[in-house]
Amino acid sequence: MNKSDSERIAAVLENIGYKKTSNISEANLIVVNMCSVRQSAIDRVYGLLPKFKKLKAQNPNAYPDFGGKEKPKSLLTGCVLRKDLRKFEKHFDYILSIKTLPYWKDFLNPAELAKKQKFFNFPNRVRKSRFLSELKGSYYPDLRNPQIYKKLDKDYLKIKPKYFSDLSALVPISTGCNNFCTYCVVPYTRGLESSRPAKDILEQVEDLANQGFKEIWLLGQNVNSYQSPTDHSLNFAKLLKLINDIPGNFWIRFTSSHPKDFSDELINTIAECEKVTEYINLPVQSGDDKILKKMQRPYAREQYENLVKKIKKNISNVCLSTDVIVGFPGETKKQFGNTVKFFKKIKFDMAYIAKYSPRPQTAAFKLKDNVSKQEKEKRREFLTQVLRKTALENNKRQIGKTLEVLVEKEKNGFMIGKTRNYKTVKFKSNKNLIGQRPKVEIIEALPWGLKGKLKTP
Ligand code: SAM
Ligand code: SF4
Questions:
Q1: Where do the domains of the chain lie, and which CATH numbers do they carry?
Q2: Which ligand ends up closest to the CA of 322?
Q3: Ligand 1 test: best mutation among 2, 3, 37, 365, most atoms within 8 Å of CB?
Q4: Tens digits of per-residue pLDDT, 299-357?
Q5: In the list 10, 75, 236, 271, which could disulfide-bond 162, CB 3.0-4.6 Å?
Q6: Helix residue ranges, H only, 273-320
Q7: Which of 36, 135, 177 to mutate to test the pocket of ligand 2 (most atoms within 8 A of CB)?
Q8: C-alpha gyration radius of the chain
């Protein structure tokens, strides 16, 4: 989602005359699009601050059109927690909610900045939507109104992104989350869940299909709880069907799915729609029932297991990835052992294994973070080794199959791409096949990918 937001930020800034630079010391404006899901991401932003300070002290290049004397401005956006907002205020010129993006053009254009317009001169409506005030509504009463809040969401998602790839496009279908898992900041930093009107999504996908994009990623924190605001019966499965009917030669992918919203209707839709690919990211978070309860995940391991059985039975050659947190407060060795057993049983193809990071404002923040850093690292490594084995086992089952591969890049003499079920494949080719979907016979399996032989160019 942050990457998709960066694409919209780039579009807004380019429209008012900015050009991207790979050399930070040339920049007039430095935008940091932050994530607060884990402390490590926030620490990376802190790590940038000395550099900003130095640039501000010495940069002679900023604003050459206006005499070259102005210092570069810095802007912080993305997911920011209230606690960090206060700390960051003194280091950034601007801190703006991503939901105010439609208004940035009014005051961020280089001419305005060169006039040394200060934060306090900004239009009122922008000042009113400074971070998190909109969530709490404590400073800015008009934003307590859910209608205004929702409108900001819609306006910001209507901005046409500057897609960073020519092949694969990110399309958010909803923002925010209503689930309040006890460890997670998303409902606090991104707000409650709000779905985009289906009409807007369909128009965007039609446009992407006409431009020749080969892969569309539908995004949402809880993508499968989608419900069109204009027609409540239009759920995620129905949206997938409508997108599948759009003419074009593209694949449909989506992330992240919540197990509680993975209906039979959705499973059948994935199985029936030829453009919808056979890859599902289904975050489990823990393989222990007591920890799941403490996380406020509304399912038990058995229910998750039954769901996986149904998915595997109905969707052929499906691959599953998951998200899991190790070292949640109070997680005993035995409870971690249950996650290990669960991994061995489900045999995931891929997993995003995170070490628990205490997040202010969340319910779990009140619990003692009593699993040591070293122990969390040990658990992460152990689980990675289990995953390595199951992924390799699954990959071996692909040997001998001929699969379509969407070629993304060339590296060290190999074409590299992804199958429908999101396996990475590398193979040799005399021709550059980037952007094409040749058929490749799988000849070798590795834990994190496959090797193949080109069948059809
Ligand atoms: N909505 C998805 C779901 O239902 O799980 C995930 C979205 S969340 C932004 C991405 C991942 O970050 C989560 O699946 C979780 O594993 C990880 N995560 C979230 N909060 C975390 C925390 N406090 N510490 C470590 N990992 C965390
Ligand atoms: Fe966070 Fe995902 Fe839980 Fe929502 S469902 S609170 S985004 S982990």
A1: 2-149 (no CATH), 160-396 (3.80.30.20), 402-456 (2.40.50.140)
A2: 1
A3: 37
A4: 999 999 999 999 999 999 999 999 999 999 999 999 999 999 999 999 999 999 999 99
A5: 10
A6: 289-294, 301-314
A7: 177
A8: 23
